[in-house]
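We now fix the convention by which a protein and its fold are recorded. These numbers are not coordinates but entries in a learned vocabulary of local backbone shapes. A record is reproduced here so that you can trace the correspondence yourselves:
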Amino acid sequence: MISVNDFKTGLTVEVEGDIFTVIDFQHVKPGKGAAFVRSKLKNLRNGNTVERTFRAGETIGRAIIENRPVQYLYASSQEHAFMDNETYDQFTLTSDQLKWELNFIRENMNVNIISYKGEILGINLPHSVELKVAETEPGVKGNTAQGATKNATLETGLIVQVPLFINQEDVLLIDTRDGKYISRA
């Protein structure tokens, strides 16, 4: 059990049978009435974000999440195969479980699987990944004052805004938290 007063961003908790990670929290001490904690929680089973308010000092269950290194093998229709790097066991996850992550993973890429009491909840991506530009229009020199961007389609199908000097076949560093261009790799 953990007190809501000890909330930290990234903490995983169990509330009403569901597993959540704390995205944001705020301790509120109104002038009149009891203190409370306003929080934004992300459900790890379905990806929904909810806002919950807890009384100060209230205790809830702490969820211990297990991270294991796995390798993404291949995709077949709506299923994606992974292999545990330690035991070589293979398992699949559906496209619905990996909506956002599919924008960043390639075959043979190493990621971390997150599970709770044997139930696989999803994958953890690194903060940034290297992806190749599959298609982009050529940038024309001198057609802008400063900071102009264009669309680039990456090898995974993700479309990002990139500077004009980026060309097809360039390898880019992409932030997996918001899907934005960081730099050339």
User: Anything to note?
Assistant: The chain has no helices and 16 strands. The CA atoms of residues 67 and 99 lie 19 Å apart.
